[in-house]
Amino acid sequence: MGYQTELTKYTGDGGIDIFARSSQPIVGGKIIVQCKRYAPQVTVGEPVLRDLYGLVISSGANKGLVVTTSSFTPAAVQFALGKPLELIDGDLLTSLMRDDPSVQKITTSFELD
Known about the structure:
The chain has helices at 46-59, 74-80, 90-99; strands at 4-7, 18-22, 29-36, 63-68, 85-88. By secondary structure, it is an alpha/beta fold. It has a single domain (4-99), classed as Trna Endonuclease, Chain: A, domain 1 (3-Layer(aba) Sandwich), CATH 3.40.1350.10. The longest helix has 14 residues, at 46-59.
């Protein structure tokens, strides 16, 4: 995808997990990524998106991206409309990984928080 990425520290990162930058014309810029590894029954709510939106605005990023293994509440989806926020839920994440030939296919098991 052509982005340079920087992982942040585990704590004290202000909620940001990844900074992504691209110098490509039109689609380039800075993206702030927040990752939420949740069990299916634990959804990402509007407060997470409000915090991320504030970080996007204060840092001058082009957009914020929230990626979760779970899903988003209706209030979170509604809040994101019309804002420079992109939501990727577990189903879309799985689909993106399945369709991307650059993703290494690994079979593993882990326990969600």
